[in-house]
Structure formats: C-alpha cells, structure tokens
Amino acid sequence: MAANANPPRSRQAGFTVREAARRTGLPPHTVSYYGGKWGREGYGRFIKPEIADAGQGTAKRFSRRNLVQLRVAFLLRDSGLPEDETRHLFTAKGAGREDWWDPENPSGQDALLLVR
Q: Hey, CA dihedral for 78, 80, 84, 90, is it positive or negative?
C-alpha cells in the first residue's frame, strides 16, 4: 500500500474564521474584516487573532477571548458607533486587560452579559 502523501492534520487550537462566525453569529466576512489587516490605516483590525495571525494563504485562528471581542465589536458597530471610535475603545488603556475578555474569569462574565 502506498504511503499517503498528505497525512491527516491534527486539530489545531482555536477557531477558524468560519468557526468563529458560527459561534458569534457574525457573517464570516465580518469576522475576517474585524480581525484582518486591510492595507489602509483605519480599516478593519479591531482585534488581533491571538492564536494565529498568519499572512496571506494561511488561516487566522481566534481564541475564546477573541470570540468575545468580535461579538462586542459587532454590537458596538451595529448600535451605530463609528469604526474609528470602536477601534479606539479596544485600544484604550485598560481595555486590553486579559481578564475582562476571558469568559472563564469572573470579570469576563460582564463581557458575556454584554454580548448576549
């Protein structure tokens, strides 16, 4: 029997764009936009994928924290907050505290309440 040229790939940690979209209820193109670099300053890139933020041709991988961030960004934009102000909230001092975005930490429950 011939050896398989492409052995099965082990399951990577994190969520792909499609998986993140399904879990957050966002369209896949919105997940890509919020987590991507778009060549011009001021477009996309509300969050940085924590597990893999590879270049062209490779998949982004989002953490559970990123899923909360994606949903919050979506709700802020959907409620009418301009893109530059939404981006500013994510970069403001203290906004990146890890415990706030982590759904497993007690303060992360506030973020989960916000996104429901």
A: negative
| Contact by Cβ (8 Å): 70, 80 | no
Q: What is the pLDDT along the chain (116 residues), one digit of tens a residue?
A: 555 554 444 456 789 999 999 999 999 999 988 887 765 666 777 888 888 776 655 678 999 889 988 998 898 899 999 988 888 887 766 665 556 666 676 655 555 555 44
Report the alpha-carbon distance of residue 99 to residue 107 in Å, rounded. 6
What is the model's pTM?
0.71
Find how far residue 41's CA is from the centre of its chain.
Answer: 19
